[in-house]
Structures are given as structure tokens and as C-alpha cells.
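Aim 2 progress update. The chain analyzed this quarter is reproduced below.
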Amino acid sequence: MMKARTGGKPRKITKKYGTSQWGEAWIRLKRDKKAMMGLVIICILLCCALVPSILAPYGLDEQRPAEALQWPNLLHLMGTDNFGRDIFSRIIYGARTSIVVGFIAVGFACITGTLIGAAAGYYGGKADNVLMRLMDVLMAIPSTLLAISIAAALGSGLVNLMIAAGIGTIPSYARTVRASVLTVKDQEYIEAARAGGASDLRIVLRHILPNCLAPIIVRSTLGVASAILTCASLSYIGLGIQPPTPEWGNMLNTGKAYLLNEWYMALFPGLAIMMVILALNLLGDGLRDALDPRMKR
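Predicted C-alpha cells:
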């Protein structure tokens, strides 16, 4: 900031700095009320996953047989299950499982798919043809059926569940990255880097992939929702997280036997899954619009 004199009085001159691309995207995202609502819900979910012991009024598997099958009340906000466990506390602890499975499964699929898509798009030719045909074979199998097959072959467990939820989504990341790389690799700055002697690895990591982050971020946000839903589906049919570990899918599986009289046992885990999936989709849609240069206002 500088001062200039006009008619003997000092005048403040403020220098305006340009906003970066990511700063402009954040400004556009904040204008989207639905996306911000989704972001708030996800932040609440993250708090539940990080500090469940502080937020949950009861323990992870604290059983009170004398209080079994109680409807929602002041002591148990969402009621209790057939073992007298507090459903609200188990939903909070179950958020940690959903977050771990969702983010690690998407991270695995995103990294693998990005490497495959970047190699296919950058080198082209036979490498592109072979890699994309492999992705086509993987895409020909329905993702849910593939996840069920992998989980049944590997067995139940957290690690196997993450692998099952991640493998089926690798082709979508590979195709997204490949399309972005094809639009970037012929730009002048890529030719300049190649003429300057930069290696292929450096060109891809330092110059191409940073310019492909926007579609990857959007795809990853929506992918977390799909991974959480896959996790809940596998647990519901007995191929995911096994009781007594709280997970929304196996809580739904337990509650289905009590739908006639104690239907709240299935209602609240189902609402938790619905709210998280809705929040992630709202945020993903908002990010897609915010990161699109054509949406500038």
C-alpha cells in the first residue's frame, strides 16, 4: 500500500492482487449453498470419525441387556438394538469405518487409475491400446458384482473390503485422466519442457498431472460416495465388516429382522448412509461447477 499526495492530503492507494485459479474456484464454491451444505455434513462426519469416543455417549460395543429394544428416548436418542447397545453411539463409531474404507479405497483406485491413464494418454500407440483394452475388460463387469466376487474370494475384513470397493472403479479414473492428458500433452509448455531435456516422468508429474487435477478431484469426491455405498452393501449381505464392529451396512442387516415392530433399528443407519451419499454428491456437483473455467462469473 502506498500513499500519494493530492492537494496536500495523503491518499491511500491499495494494490490489488489477482486471485489464483484455486482461489476463484473456492469463491464460486462458497456461492453454491447446496455444495456448502454437503461440505458441512462431511465435516460433521469427519469429526465423528476422528473423535468418536468424545461424541458417543456410550462405548463401541457396550451391551445393556436390560435396556434392549428401547425406542428413541432421552437416554438413547436413536433407541437400542437387540443387545441393548446404543444405536446413536454405534452410528458415530460406524462413521470411522465408512471414512476409512471410502477414502482408502478411492485413494487406491485414484492412484492406480491415474498412473494407467497418464501412461496411456502420454505414450499413446500400442501402450494406449493395450492399457485401455484392459480397462474395457474390467469395465465390462458390473462394479457391484465385481466387488461381491472379490470380497467372497478374499473373505471378510476391512482390508479386503477396501480392495473390493476400489478395484472396480479403477477404469473410470484411468479414462478420466487419459482424456485430460490428451488435451494437455500437446501444449507449448510441454514441448518446451521436452526440448529442455526433461524426462518423461518429470514432464508427466510436474507439468501434465497438475493441470489435470480438477477432474480427478471431482471424480474422487463422487467416488468416495460410491465406495461407502459399496462398503455398506457388502456388509449388508455379510461380505464386509463383521459384527460386533459397528458399520452402517451390518447395522441395517441386523435391523431387517425387526422391521415389523422396532423399525427404527434399520431407519437410522439407512438415514446415515443416505445423508453421507447425498452430501458427497452435492459437494461433487459443486466442485465440478466451481472448477469449470466456463463457469466464471
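The first strand starts at residue 2 and ends at 6. The longest helix spans residues 87-123. These observations will guide the mutagenesis experiments scheduled for the next reporting period.
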